[in-house]
Amino acid sequence: MRVLTFLHSFEAGGVERIALRLVRAWRGAGIEAPLFMGRSDGPMRNELARALEFHQPRQPPFSTRRFETLWMMITLPAVIRRLQPDLLFCAGNSYTVVALAMKLLLGRRCPPIVAKISNDLERRDMPMPIRTLYRLWVRLHARFIDHFVGMEHAMEREISSAIHIPSRCISIIADPAIDQRQLETLRAGATGRRRQENEGLQFVAVGRLVPQKNFGLMLRAFAVAATTRDCLTIYGDGPERERLAALALQLGIEDRVRFKGHVPDPARHLTGFDIFLLSSNYEGVPAVIIEALGAGLPIIATDCSSAMSELTQHGRLATLVPVGNLYDLAAAIAAARRMDQCEDASYSQAKRFTIEQACGDYITCFKHVTYNSISENNCHPQAEVRS
């Protein structure tokens, strides 16, 4: 079986990070897993793709960064014709438009497509007119995606309802956010961590500095509720970095907020902190929450996806607050000193989301989809994979 994965670049992103690790795991399991990269730049090439063979189209004399999706639509069909994969893996929501293009351009010569739903499909953050158009776009997915993968059980109903497909067209495979080696390292670092009563709290957040993550809300809540001894460290980079640094200065917390930029494997830095923060407007199953669980950290997060409650065991492993609500996020930060985390329960939950487990589940899913690809329907009846 030959499974082709297509990505824009090696720029830092959760979808791309997990896809690269899956490709490596599938190859290790004996699956032919070619990788198409629209361009070869980005920090994850050295971090995750060393000695990882990939296919890349001939590059023009100008950067394709600004129109990378169109560039992929233009160049990917030739690679599909040449490699003749049995299946295409669409690594996240942002790539489904490419999947649509492949179905239109290749017709019956397009292999079946399995798409992972990596982000919230409800998108309550959107203004109603745009949200209505988005819903129509999501519903269209049923016509060109052969099978969908959700990353937590709670996502099955969301996917089925939003795309208008039966549950037989959906597999639930726990988000492969961490590997067993990383998990054991995080657990070892968490063991014996104790905070002195008179110390300030060390808050930490990880993510791209983009509007989706709403770090501005986090900074405002921190300014309102944290004590002068508390500090916030943010790992990640992106186009909003300058604006967020200016906001921290405006709020008078610039000496207590540290922007660390992009770092390889940010999970390994988590064990030195006390509280993990997430302020996103929308997510799928946030890999950073799984990493925080692995590190045994108490978590304060926005209820930014249908999976968040189940992921955090319905409030047992995190304090969840409404999306975009400054008052509730600030109140949770103010109460953070009283938070505690059951490290055993946190570790057990994180253990569900290992690359080792997901690798086999994906292969089982791919075999079912390939076997049933002769069906006339886009969504083929098949056994479901459950983590």
Care to describe what's here?
The chain is an alpha/beta fold and 387 residues long. The protein folds into two domains: 3-176 and 354-371, Glycogen Phosphorylase B (Rossmann fold, 3-Layer(aba) Sandwich); 180-351, Rossmann fold, CATH 3.40.50. It has 14 helices and twelve strands. It has helices at 14-28, 44-48, 68-83, 96-106, 128-140, 155-163, 180-190, 215-225, 241-251, 287-294, 308-311, 326-334, 343-351, 355-371; strands at 3-7, 35-37, 87-90, 113-116, 147-150, 170-172, 202-206, 231-235, 257-261, 275-278, 299-302, 319-321. A six-stranded parallel sheet has the order 2-1-3-4-5-6, sandwiched between helices. Strands 9-8-7-10-11-12 form a six-stranded parallel sheet, sandwiched between helices. α1 links the parallel β1 and β2. It starts with a strand and ends in a 16-residue tail after the last helix. Mean pLDDT is 90; it is low at 380-387.
